[in-house]
Specification:
Elements: H1 2-29, H2 36-53, H3 58-81, H4 89-111, E1 116-117, E2 127-129, E3 132-134, H5 136-155, H6 159-169, H7 171-176, H8 181-203, E4 208-209, H9 213-229, H10 234-257, H11 264-279
Antiparallel strand pairs: 1-4, 2-3
Helix pairs in contact: 1-5, 1-8, 1-9, 1-10, 2-3, 2-4, 2-8, 2-9, 3-8, 9-10, 9-11, 10-11
Length: about 290
């Protein structure tokens, strides 16, 4: 069982990174960002092309992938989000679902729907943690999650971070004190895209990846993590991601292998969500409205 907990911890780190981007956009715009996973997919495919296809150094691929992800986020903000600023949140949500589907379609046309393998940042054999063979890439993933958690906590104590929070509470009052809503919107979407890109770059080398892999396999658990932690809590998103990853793998072990229950991972996550939301509707670290 220890091996499943260890694997869930590292898988949950990816969920946590995506969940933080989802919460960041929700705090600022009160909309669910269904395009969050595709920022990671764009980063992974861009890095793969630079490193594998063109043979450039790995760091160039990483930087190129993050630039592509942030660029995609800024384009989405300018072309989709800003023109729909005054529209209903439902229209915005549908538009963001369309962005995700459009990005997947473009990736399929350009890269073709074939599995690819991204070389890891650090090679070598894995280490044994609680009986599970953990790759160096997965250790990097967990370390990056911890660093980003600390960085985000620090950011929201700065003047710029407080400006983001002020804009999310009352955009007109923020404008009165000189905060630019356009600049804040760009910042939020750029940061969300950066977090998604980091998640995609760190997760892609763990296995094979195909167009839309972050949306198809990671987005729903990431949303579950955001809801579990509290949709307005960035620390809650990290905690929720780790919790979802561990519960998924424990479900596979306890329900799938021991009791042969189909859909064990999803059933475990559903049970956890229902339990937490019945006790704390605002999520683990969320605040009551």
């Amino acid at each position: 069982m220890g091996a499943f907990i260890a694997l869930g911890l590292f898988q949950g780190a990816v969920y946590g990174l995506l969940a933080v981007g989802i919460v960041l956009v929700y705090k600022a715009k009160r909309v669910f960002n269904f395009a969050q996973g595709e920022f990671g997919s764009v980063a992974a495919f861009s890095a793969f092309y630079l490193v594998v296809a063109l043979g450039l150094p790995y760091w160039v691929g990483v930087v190129g992938g993050l630039v592509a992800a942030v660029g995609t986020g800024l384009i989405v903000e300018r072309v989709i989000v800003r023109p729909l600023e005054s529209a209903s949140r439902t229209i915005m949500l549908v538009a963001l679902v369309g962005v995700a589907l459009f990005t997947i379609a473009i990736t399929v046309l350009i890269a073709e729907p074939i599995p690819r393998v991204m070389p890891p940042l650090i090679g070598g054999s894995g280490v044994n943690i609680l009986g599970a063979g953990i790759l160096p890439q997965q250790l990097i993933l967990l370390a990056v999650l911890a660093v980003l958690a600390a960085a985000m906590a620090w950011f929201f104590k700065t003047d710029l971070g407080l400006a983001v929070l002020a804009s999310s509470q009352d955009i007109r009052a923020a404008q009165v004190v000189g905060i630019s809503p356009v600049a804040i919107s760009r910042l939020v979407w750029g940061m969300a895209a950066l977090l998604g890109g980091v998640a995609g770059l760190l997760y892609a080398p763990v296995g094979i990846f195909t167009p839309g892999f972050m949306t198809l396999t990671m987005l729903v658990p990431a949303f579950a993590a955001a809801v579990l932690g509290g949709m307005t809590s960035l620390p809650g998103a990290f905690v929720g991601g780790i919790s979802i990853g561990i519960v998924q793998n424990l479900g596979i072990y306890l329900l799938g292998q021991q009791l042969a229950v189909p859909g064990a991972a999803e059933l475990g996550v559903f049970a956890l969500l229902m339990l937490v939301l019945l006790i704390r509707p605002q999520g683990l670290l969320g605040k009551e409205a």
